[in-house]
């Protein structure tokens, strides 16, 4: 079975991977970079090799149905009929919430939108969430609270070129979105990361806090900003509320106390604040490292408080932003695949929002909010949980926390359906696998990390036997008794409906058209007529127009090191792989560069555990045991190990991670858990 | 509902009220009454040196806003000191009022100790004009009022707080002299060598020292006479010669008192209905005078009094002394009074007085048991973390002592770079691949980029690729 891609002439598109959405062209199956404000003609190794999956022998081209314990080829009708019949039976027997839906931050806006509509209208279930919960939810929650609106970067990426100073906390763009680094070159860079990452190597000042102590550090930097006379009082008076309550807590985090908790020297705290505050233009940027904690939303609030105290947000060429991770991590959280949201970044518990969406969809009822991602996975197959799950664009067996438990829950389902382009680890355990189109084989819009809507145009024909996710949703919806026109399978038709649904919402796309995007217009949402490259210059999105300080207190990691688990593990990414690695591990060049799971460890820590560089180690937490190749790295903290999370099987870093959730964002504590090292 | 009465609204008392309300936010388990004798709301004593230095306003160091008590269901009564505890009837007297309690917590703190220098106290036992203790927010106001630039100031006491005050006043432009009866500064925390280097560092910031000297007289408007016959001119004398636990209420109530009010691991005094925390309490021989123990005690006691964790115990606090003085990085912890040639311990010592650096590290079984780190901020932070977390120290002791690993030797020439070294990270291109491409004819930056993709990601490696191309060109034998 070989997949063949028929090749058209050169087509402008964007990379299938991260949220930078580097511009590229495809011609004769060959990718070449394209000048664009975000990537400036740069591509990393993932982008350069992205076309290989179009013709990979690993590509799925026929539906698979589990029979006698094995996945066997089936026709589309067989597969869809089986799924629809099972879903109908479950709904009849146990109610609509017996079926769950799990989406992804890599899905186009059209797919995200239609998936949410499918869940709430065709299935009538409240049980839908997506893997973006594991990415952007903490920053989104904090951004909403502070500014009344969450757009990862409320300014164009190119504005960073004008910055004199940038504080980047918990982000490693030199590996996760390399061409982005071009925008950091004119600024003095302060990097906060427990590891000396390639990004930290670029920094003027690198602060290396103990994992899980970023919140204390942020409080401390706010304290120092005040004590060293950098508070922008006029800005506080004119554009913010709530400073005093935030300060009462920050006042108790004097630099020496912060040093003791975080390990960041007082002198470095002062230097960081000085560089940031004395810059004419300055930014505070956050990434997953500081967000993926059970106190992640409060931690981001603390960083935003610092930015507000210095008067940065809402000023041209200054501000706060978060680095969105997944390709459509921004758009994916706006159009209704999140448990608590409806299209246009509307709240599902807002009566006016519900009325508007019911009107657009022509229905007279909608389910309410459902479980968050990990809670949904944890409930699968439980007495009150879903008995079937439909998965689009996610590989949770690798990417969810406490992943063996998640695998066990998936195993307890009556029906697991996975739509994917390759046989991911999650697809491999499914009852039905639906082969779907990817990136260059379909059209759709993506919203990049700066809130700019991009059109990815179909560049090649998909292999025979493969259908788009939109087709799949239409096929299932009609089998569940829905009229076909309610679930269009043409991307532009879906987008036209999304425009209407989002109109008047926070993320208003009503002014965006495929035609305008084809013309290359730069449209950052909200777009009613023109775009909004910078959202807060005149006012913030709260009714009073002001940004809010949020009083937050440091809590520390949920799990502290102890005698049995004396080290702390943190997880992250490598340049060559994307997310769960389901795609990039199948690209030979990427696989050769980073073929297997590894653990970075200080040489002394390795020696004490009887490990040698290049040998194998077991990393053990209360939840599981991961096998990884040892890399001795002298710049590591002596009490911290690092594992990339892209690998499958015994090498899954998420076998270890702690599913403790943030009370607001429901973000799991991916970035710190207690572990020990064992020789194997 | 049990009735908890806290005597004292300083850092310990305020924290206890906070910790109780964190566990019992709606006052469903215990009622809380706080009795404070100062007229204003609790403030953060740790930050008083910042107030003296002028970096924080008095308003900024308040622990609570004025509406804190109402918002948190706390009965806060200010400005009336407790005059008596009646343990039989379980009431405390505030003036004419009686306040009943089920559990009483003494958080009465400490007061400044004034040395018996003639002239320092007036006839009423109050500090004479021009002399101010360094203990309360009101003291700070008095100090700041007198501390205009050029004012001669004497600080009595070269301990932690005295030096913080001295540094803050020097920063305001005062002419500061520290008078200290011992031969070196901060003798409780430092050895003589560290004390000397610290004095040198502070001298560089404009502070003068009279070490090993006793003040024998004070004349307002003139200054201090010392026992070596010299005179220290001072319009302001800041008294920072130590504190004494405030135990008089406990003493009069018949509770067991030594240097502080004696408490057990449950923070109970000799009367189990009466507790003590903070500077007034003495736990296993220690009267701490520091905020960290007070806060940890408040958390334990809140666990017990609210019933959230009735078995909670206070096990003592690991103390790290950290001087809060701008441009001076000093940390001291554990037992540092160990000889360099001690047989039982591993002792490392580094002295660089000319640059204000001094580091002494005491290890036993690979664990840090004591350290003084001065002028090496990174080392102070790292060693403190090792000590607090009980981690084995890295084998590279020199790097630990200096605070950072010595930089790796710079690779001088592309020739020295191993072939496997990755030059372009964005595209995983090694030096070997670049050399191969060059030999195959890609001899310019653009052609080598086209073949290998080096430099096509973030562009950060372009200089390195250029260097390799130039090196290859130069190493090529010249042909005609």
Automatic annotation (TrEMBL), chain A:
| GO BP | respiratory electron transport chain
The regions listed as transmembrane in this protein's record are none
Please provide the record's keywords in A-Z order: 4Fe-4S, Iron, Iron-sulfur, Metal-binding
List the Gene3D superfamilies hit by this protein, alphabetically: 2.40.40.20, 3.40.50.740, ADC-like domains, Dimethylsulfoxide Reductase, domain 2
Single GO molecular-function term?
molybdopterin cofactor binding
Q: Name one GO cellular component term.
A: membrane
Q: Which residues form the 4Fe-4S Mo/W bis-MGD-type domain?
A: 8-56
| Record PANTHER family | NADH-QUINONE OXIDOREDUCTASE SUBUNIT G, RESPIRATORY NITRATE REDUCTASE
What name appears for this protein in its UniProt entry?
Assimilatory nitrate reductase catalytic subunit
| Taxonomic source organism | Saccharothrix saharensis
The organism that produces this protein has a lineage beginning with:
Bacteria, Bacillati, Actinomycetota, Actinomycetes, Pseudonocardiales
TrEMBL record, chain B:
A GO MF annotation of the entry reads: iron-sulfur cluster binding
Recorded hits in Gene3D superfamilies, A to Z, give: 3.30.390.30, BFD-like [2Fe-2S]-binding domain (1.10.10.1100), FAD/NAD(P)-binding domain (3.50.50.60)
The residues covered by the FAD/NAD(P)-binding domain are 3-298
Where does the record place the NADH-rubredoxin oxidoreductase C-terminal domain?
Answer: 320-384
Ranges for domain BFD-like [2Fe-2S]-binding come to: 422-469
UniProt keywords (A-Z) are:
FAD, Flavoprotein, Heme, Iron, Iron-sulfur, Metal-binding, Oxidoreductase
| Pfam families per UniProt | Fer2_BFD, Pyr_redox_2, Rubredoxin_C
Pathway entry:
Nitrogen metabolism; nitrate reduction (assimilation)
Query: Which cofactor is recorded for it?
Result: siroheme; FAD; [4Fe-4S] cluster
Q: Which PANTHER family match?
A: NITRITE REDUCTASE (NADH) LARGE SUBUNIT (PTHR43809)
Family membership: Belongs to the nitrite and sulfite reductase 4Fe-4S domain family.
Name assigned to this protein: Assimilatory nitrate reductase electron transfer subunit
């Amino acid at each position: 079975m070989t997949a063949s891609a028929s090749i058209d002439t050169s087509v402008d598109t964007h990379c299938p991977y991260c949220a930078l959405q580097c511009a590229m062209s495809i011609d004769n199956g060959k990718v070449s970079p394209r000048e664009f404000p975000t990537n400036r003609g740069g591509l990393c190794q993932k982008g350069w090799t992205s076309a290989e999956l179009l013709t990979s022998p690993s590509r799925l081209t026929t539906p698979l149905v589990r029979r006698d314990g094995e996945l066997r080829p089936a026709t589309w009708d067989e597969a869809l009929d089986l799924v629809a019949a099972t879903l109908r039976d479950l709904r009849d027997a146990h109610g609509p919430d017996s079926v769950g839906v799990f989406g992804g931050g890599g899905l186009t806006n059209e797919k995200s939108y239609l998936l949410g509509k499918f869940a709430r209208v065709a299935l009538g279930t409240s049980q839908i969430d997506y893997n973006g919960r594991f990415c952007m939810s903490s920053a989104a929650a904090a951004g909403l609270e502070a500014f009344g609106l969450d757009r990862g970067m409320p300014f164009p990426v190119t504005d960073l070129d004008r910055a004199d100073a940038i504080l980047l906390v918990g982000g490693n763009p030199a590996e996760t979105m390399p061409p982005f680094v071009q925008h950091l070159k004119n600024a003095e860079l302060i990097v906060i990361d427990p590891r000396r990452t390639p990004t930290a190597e670029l920094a003027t000042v690198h602060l290396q806090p103990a994992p899980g102590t970023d919140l204390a550090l942020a409080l401390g930097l706010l304290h120092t900003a005040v004590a060293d006379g950098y508070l922008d009082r006029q800005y506080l008076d004119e554009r913010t509320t709530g400073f005093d309550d935030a300060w009462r807590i920050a006042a108790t985090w004097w630099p020496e106390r912060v040093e003791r908790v975080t390990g960041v020297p007082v002198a470095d705290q002062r230097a960081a604040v000085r560089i940031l505050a004395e810059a004419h233009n300055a930014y505070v940027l956050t990434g997953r490292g500081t967000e993926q904690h059970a106190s992640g939303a409060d931690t981001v609030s603390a960083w935003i408080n610092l930015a507000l105290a210095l008067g940065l947000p809402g000023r041209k060429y200054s501000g706060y932003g978060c680095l969105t991770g997944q390709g459509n991590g921004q758009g994916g959280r706006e159009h209704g695949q999140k448990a608590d949201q409806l299209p246009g970044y509307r709240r599902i518990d807002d009566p006016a929002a519900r009325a508007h969406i019911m009107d657009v969809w022509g229905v007279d009822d909608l389910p309410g909010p459902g479980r968050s991602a990990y809670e949904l996975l944890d409930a699968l197959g439980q007495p009150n949980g879903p008995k079937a799950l439909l998965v689009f664009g996610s590989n949770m067996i690798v990417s969810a926390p406490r992943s063996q438990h998640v695998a066990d829950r998936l195993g307890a389902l009556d029906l697991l359906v996975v739509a994917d382009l390759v046989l991911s680890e999650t697809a491999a355990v499914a009852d039905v696998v639906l082969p779907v189109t990817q990136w260059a084989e379909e059209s759709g819009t993506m919203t990049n990390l700066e809130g700019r809507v991009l059109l990815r145009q179909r560049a090649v024909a998909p292999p025979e036997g493969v259908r788009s996710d939109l087709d799949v949703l239409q096929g299932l919806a009609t089998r569940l008794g829905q009229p076909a026109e309610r679930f269009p399978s043409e991307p532009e038709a879906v987008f036209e409906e999304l425009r209407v649904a989002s109109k008047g919402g926070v993320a208003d796309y009503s002014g965006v058209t495929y035609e305008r995007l084809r013309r290359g217009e730069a449209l950052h949402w909200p777009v009613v007529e023109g775009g909004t490259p910078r959202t807060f210059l005149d006012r913030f999105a709260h009714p009073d127009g002001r940004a809010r300080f949020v009083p937050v207190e440091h809590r520390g990691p949920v799990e502290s090191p102890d005698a049995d688990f004396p080290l702390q593990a943190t997880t992250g990414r490598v340049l060559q792989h994307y997310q769960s690695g389901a795609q990039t591990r199948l690209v030979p060049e990427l696989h050769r560069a980073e073929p297997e799971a590894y653990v970075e460890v200080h040489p002394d820590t390795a020696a004490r555990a009887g490990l040698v560089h290049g040998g194998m180690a077991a990393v053990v937490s209360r939840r599981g045991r991961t096998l990884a190749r040892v890399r001795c790295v002298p710049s590591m903290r002596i009490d911290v190990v690092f594992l990339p999370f892209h690998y499958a099987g015994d090498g899954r870093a998420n076998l270890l991670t702690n599913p403790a959730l943030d009370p607001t964002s429901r973000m799991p504590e991916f970035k710190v858990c207690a572990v020990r090292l064992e020789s194997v | 509902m049990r009735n908890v009465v806290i005597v004292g609204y300083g850092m310990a008392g305020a924290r206890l009220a906070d910790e109780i309300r964190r566990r019992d936010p709606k006052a469903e388990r215990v009622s809380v009454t706080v009795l404070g004798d100062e007229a204003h709301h609790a403030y953060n004593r740790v930050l008083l040196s910042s107030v003296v230095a002028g970096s924080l306003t008095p308003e900024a160091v308040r622990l609570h806003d004025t509406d804190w008590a109402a918002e948190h269901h706390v009965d806060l009564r200010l400005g009336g000191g407790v005059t008596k505890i009646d343990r039989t009837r379980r009431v405390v007297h505030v003036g004419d009022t009686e306040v009943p309690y089920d559990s009483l917590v003494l958080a009465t703190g400490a007061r400044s100790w004034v040395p018996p220098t003639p002239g320092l106290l007036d006839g009423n036992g109050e500090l004479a004009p021009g002399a101010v203790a360094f203990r309360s927010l009101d003291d700070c106001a008095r100090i700041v009022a007198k501390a205009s630039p050029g004012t001669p100031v004497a600080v009595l006491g070269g301990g932690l707080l005295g030096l913080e005050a001295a540094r803050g006043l020097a920063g305001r432009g005062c002419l500061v002299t520290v008078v200290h009866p011992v031969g070196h500064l901060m003798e409780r925390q430092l050895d003589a060598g560290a004390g000397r280097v610290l004095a040198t560092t502070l001298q560089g910031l404009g502070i003068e020292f009279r070490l090993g000297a006793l003040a024998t007289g004070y004349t307002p408007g003139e200054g201090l006479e010392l026992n070596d016959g010299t005179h220290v001119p001072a319009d302001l004398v800041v008294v920072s010669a130590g504190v004494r636990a405030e135990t008089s209420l406990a003493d009069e109530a018949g509770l067991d008192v030594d240097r502080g009010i004696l408490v057990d691991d449950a923070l109970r005094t000799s009367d189990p209905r009466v507790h003590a925390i903070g500077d007034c309490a003495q736990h296993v021989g220690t009267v701490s005078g520091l905020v960290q123990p007070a806060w940890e005690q408040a958390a334990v006691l809140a666990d017990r009094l609210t019933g959230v964790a009735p078995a909670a115990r206070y096990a003592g606090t690991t103390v790290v002394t950290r001087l809060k003085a701008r441009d001076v990085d000093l940390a001291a912890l554990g037992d540092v009074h160990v000889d360099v040639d001690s047989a039982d311990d591993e002792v490392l010592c580094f002295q660089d007085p000319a640059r204000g650096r001094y580091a002494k590290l005491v290890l036993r079984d690979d664990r840090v048991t004591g350290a003084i780190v001065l002028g090496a901020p990174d080392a102070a932070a790292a060693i403190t973390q090792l000590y607090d977390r009980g981690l084995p120290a890295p084998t590279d002791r020199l790097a630990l002592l200096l605070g950072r690993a010595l930089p790796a030797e710079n690779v001088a020439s592309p020739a020295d770079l191993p072939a496997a070294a990755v030059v372009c990270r964005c595209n995983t291109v090694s030096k070997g691949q670049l050399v191969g491409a060059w030999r195959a004819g890609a001899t310019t930056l653009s052609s080598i980029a086209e073949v290998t993709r080096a430099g096509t990601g973030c562009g950060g490696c372009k200089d390195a690729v250029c260097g390799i191309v130039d090196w290859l060109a130069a190493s090529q034998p010249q042909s005609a």
